[in-house]
Structures are given as C-alpha cells and as structure tokens.
Design brief:
Blueprint lengths: L30 H16 L4 E3 L9 E5 L9 E20 L9 E14 L5 E7 H14 L10 H16 L4
Antiparallel strand pairs: 1-2, 2-3, 3-4, 4-5
The protein binds nickel (II) ion.
C-alpha cells in the first residue's frame, strides 16, 4: 500500500473570522474525510495540542479531533463529527488554552461530566461520556464548531485584558 505524506495544516489564530462562524454539518463520509481526520490529528500533534476543530484549520465544518493523552493511549483518540451534548452534570473550573490563542490561559467554568452524541469518520453514530479533562476538551471543541472561543466564556474584564495582551503581541509581531 502506498503511503502518502499527510498534510500538516496551519492553525489559524484569533481574530480570523472563520473562528467565529458556526460550522456546517458534515454530510459526506468518504475517503477524503478520513484523510482530513488523519491530517487533523497530525496537525494537532505538530502544534502540541490535545484538541483541534476544523474551523481552526480554516474549514467551517462540524468536525473535531481530540486526544487527551497526547499519543500515549491509542484508545483516547477521538473523532467527533456533527457532535451534540446530550447530557451534562456538575461544574469544574480549570485553566484552559487554545491553539488559536497561543500563550493565553484563563480559568473557564465547564460542566464536570458530559455525554456527547456524534458520528465517527465513517458516519456511524455513537455516544461518548467524559469527565474532567475529557469533558472540558469535548466542550471546548464543540464550542469551536459553534463559533465560540474560550475567551467568550470569561468575564468581560478578563476578556479585555486578554484582548489588550493580544494587541500588544500583534504590535510586536509576535502574534
Ligand atoms: Ni481551541
């Protein structure tokens, strides 16, 4: 079998408008989609992330990949196509970051446990439950598919401080 080098996609940064746009449902489950999923995992690992949503590589589609163990546990590799949160419980407050907001970290309130219904890369529906980091990762990535960033979920004051920091970095050519 021929091996084709997977493309590493560049992660788009805030304030790219694609990050604020809700993604369109994925309707075609073909080989191109499975290649894209493989490329998203590689792009996520290259960027040292544990989650990557399609809008972050400029594709406004409801597709995200997650690996909370960062390659340590193959079973932790999770592909969520057209995901929806169908149950949630409790709250957690932990620091969060995002590949589209490098160097920004803030505490974000999230559900402590969630159940998500999604399709895999072959179009089969399944349910996945997660708590703590996995719940946080799924909620963060599903937010991306709805055009929401974690800085949209912090206080207005903290958000203004973050935006000021970003402007400063932009001015220094560091963003
Ligand atoms: Ni993110």
């Amino acid at each position: 079998m021929a091996t084709v080098a997977l493309k590493i996609h560049e992660v788009v940064k805030y304030p790219d408008p694609v990050l604020a746009r809700p993604g369109a449902p994925v309707t075609v489950f073909d080989r191109a989609l499975r290649t894209l999923v493989a490329e998203m995992f590689e792009s996520m690992y290259a960027a040292q992330g544990i989650g990557l949503a399609a809008p972050q590589i400029g594709l406004s589609q409801r597709l995200t990949v997650i690996d909370t163990s960062f390659k340590k546990e193959p079973k932790d590799k999770l592909v969520l196509v057209n995901p929806e949160v169908i149950a949630r419980r409790g709250t957690q407050l932990e620091e969060e970051g995002c590949l589209s907001l490098p160097e920004i970290r803030e505490k974000v309130k999230r559900d402590a446990w969630v159940k998500v219904r999604a399709q895999n890369e072959c179009g089969e529906w399944f349910e996945v439950e997660g708590e703590e980091l996995l719940a946080r990762a799924m909620l963060h990535e599903i937010d991306h598919l709805n055009g929401i960033l974690f800085i949209d979920r912090i206080s207005r004051l903290k958000r203004e401080l973050v935006l000021r920091k970003i402007k400063k970095m932009q001015k220094l050519g560091e963003w």
